Amino acid sequence: MSEVVVDRSKALWHWVADHRIVLSSTVFGLLIIEDIIEPQIPRDADSFADPVGLLGGLLVLAGIALRSWAAGHLDKGRTLTVTGPYAVSRNPLYVGSMLAATGFCVVLWDIENLFGALLIGLAVYLPKAAREEKKLRRLFGDAWDGYAQRVGRLVTLPWRVDPADLFGARWRATTWMRNHEYRFACAALSGLAILEVLHHALT
């Protein structure tokens, strides 16, 4: 009986991880709809007169930039990517997603949204990252073990970062396109634009 429960739990976590984008988008969509119905007026994300809103907008842009930087280096399934942001984090795409999510929470200025982002990060992205790392260990063996020893799952202390890895490889637009990172960038920028329109419409 216990083995069945464990197997079902694993299957559930795998399903959540595989559908992380749809799930996270749905949760944030519902939170935004709730804020619009209340209505919760978003902060002004492009004005120095509203430093909180501006901080939120910058966090969203930072998340987009980090993900785009990572996607331009990531050669999925072919080589072990250790350059660019992968010299600082084993999961820069997920870190970028959390930065952007936090930025949206700041712009929306609702504590429920912040808790929602934290919940999504813990429940969806961390299990997915652990699952992917097991696969990379199987694929790349000792090379992965050495990489994982010097680079943290989320962030690495600056003095442990190898400058040759950080700046030693060229970012490629073709790789960025092949990884479909434009989808995230367009969605995040569109969301930020919608919140900015709402801010001006409601104030």
Question: What does this 3D model show about the protein?
Answer:
- The chain is mainly alpha-helical and 203 residues long.
- It has one domain (2-202).
- 71% of the residues lie in helices and 0% in strands.
- The chain contains nine helices and no strands.
- The protein has helices at 2-18, 20-37, 51-71, 92-108, 111-140, 142-150, 163-167, 173-178, 181-202.
- Helix 1 crosses helix 5 (111-140).
- The chain is elongated.
- The termini are far apart.
- The relative contact order is 0.16.
- The model has no long low-confidence stretch (mean pLDDT 83).
Order of helices and strands: HHHHHHHHH
Count the strands? 0
What percent strand?
under 5%
Number of domains: 1
What is the makeup of the main sheet? none
Name the average pLDDT.
83
First and last CA, distance: 58 Å
Tally of DSSP helical segments: 9
Structural class: mainly alpha
Question: What best-fitting shape do the alpha-carbon axes yield?
Answer: elongated
Over the alpha carbons, how many angstroms does the gyration radius reach? 19 Å
Helix content: over 70%
* Low-pLDDT residue intervals, each spanning 5 or more residues: none
